[in-house]
Design brief:
Elements: H1 2-26, H2 42-61, H3 68-92, H4 122-138, H5 141-169, H6 174-180, H7 189-194
Helix pairs in contact: 1-3, 1-4, 2-5, 3-4, 4-5
Length: about 200
């Protein structure tokens, strides 16, 4: 279980440091302490604390309830999610921001190349799989489900709002054409958003 906790802490540190340094290098004008994304919401903090409590309860009372396959799957999810999110931030460059932009800046473009040529919200896809992967690493059965549902619900509303905003920022139909040829990448989210 020490390996699980170590891998989890490495994933957490890599994610938050990666958020800051990727922003600092590729979009320095918006870089601040908030770019670490450590304290971005009470929900995120609560979810982390719940997962830690679950892990340490398992450590004390259910030590044998671990799976090398689940752990390995978590490692793959975390690495894949981290790469997807970081690639998205690098590809977006100055158009990337941790906050949804409601006003179009002079340098704000609709990014449709690189990973954005396949996924229209790759930073969200990366975060979704990274978050679930952290709980797979810890083999936390309750938190795997809670993280999956919480992240899915969060992105359901965030993506719907962001897509509405992007349609307003790019009213010439460019965003609609782009959305028609790309995937969201989070399970079943496209079906829910289509029905709205």
């Amino acid at each position: 279980m020490a390996l699980q906790w170590t891998a989890y802490v490495v994933a957490l540190c890599t994610f938050h440091l990666g958020e800051f340094f990727t922003t600092a290098v590729f979009n320095p004008s918006v870089t601040s302490a908030d770019s670490f994304m450590v304290n971005h919401s009470k929900h995120y903090t609560a979810a982390a604390l719940i997962s830690w409590v679950e892990f340490f309860i398992r450590l004390v009372f259910f030590r044998s309830q671990n799976s090398a396959r689940v752990f390995s799957t978590g490692i793959l999810f975390v690495i894949g999610g981290q790469l997807c999110r970081s690639w998205a931030m690098v590809t977006c460059g100055e158009s990337f921001n941790h906050y949804i932009q409601r006003d179009k800046k002079d340098n704000h473009i609709l990014v449709t190349h690189g990973i954005y040529g396949i996924l229209r919200h790759p930073s969200y896809v990366g975060f979704y799989y990274w978050a679930v992967g952290t709980q797979l690493i810890l083999c936390n059965p309750l938190s795997i489900i809670l993280y999956g549902v919480a992240a899915w619900t969060f992105f359901r509303y965030r993506i719907a709002y962001e897509e509405h905003t992007l349609r307003n920022l790019f009213p010439d139909g460019a965003y609609d054409a782009y959305a028609a040829r790309t995937y969201i990448g989070i399970p079943f989210l496209a079906l829910v958003l289509r029905s709205r």
